[in-house]
Amino acid sequence: MKKLEAHIFVCTHERPSGHLRGCCKDKKSEELIPLFKQELSKAGISAVTRAQKAGCLDACELGPSIVIYPDNIWYGKVTPQDIPEIVKSHLMEGKPVERLRMPGK
Questions:
Q1: For 1-105, where are the alpha helices, taking DSSP H only?
Q2: Does 105 have pLDDT greater than 90?
């Protein structure tokens, strides 16, 4: 088994309907996972980078939220259109996408 270089955790937490903080699942976060996997494959890094769902990242008001380890970089309000930029800039070039970073994370 190869050692992973990066791990993308996508919050898929679901809160009760009408919760003040909302939830990532209601913001279609689950749709991001296969899109990340496709983009990782296109970039040729799917063997060393994994994208998967996560439980609550406690940032649903900023969701869909993701965190990339081992860098400990948190992104919020991620859309399908952001995924190619995250993969290219952050994962391939080592430059986090500042416009998506969560404040204080």
A1: 32-43, 83-85
A2: no
Alpha carbons within 13 angstroms on the beta-carbon side of residue 90 total 30
Q: Tell me the HSE value of 35 on the side-chain side, using a 13 A CA sphere.
A: 15
Q: What is the pLDDT of residues 41-50, one digit of tens each?
A: 999 999 999 9
Q: Which two tokens stand for residue 2?
A: 């190869």
Strand partners, 52: 9
Integer CA distances (angstroms), 21 to 55, 62, 77, 99, in order: 15, 9, 13, 21
- pTM assigned to the model: 0.92
Separation between Cα atoms, residue 77 and residue 30, nearest integer Å: 13
Measured CA to CA, the distance from residue 51 to residue 68 in angstroms comes to: 9
Going along the chain, which residue ranges are E strands?
6-11, 49-54, 66-69, 73-75
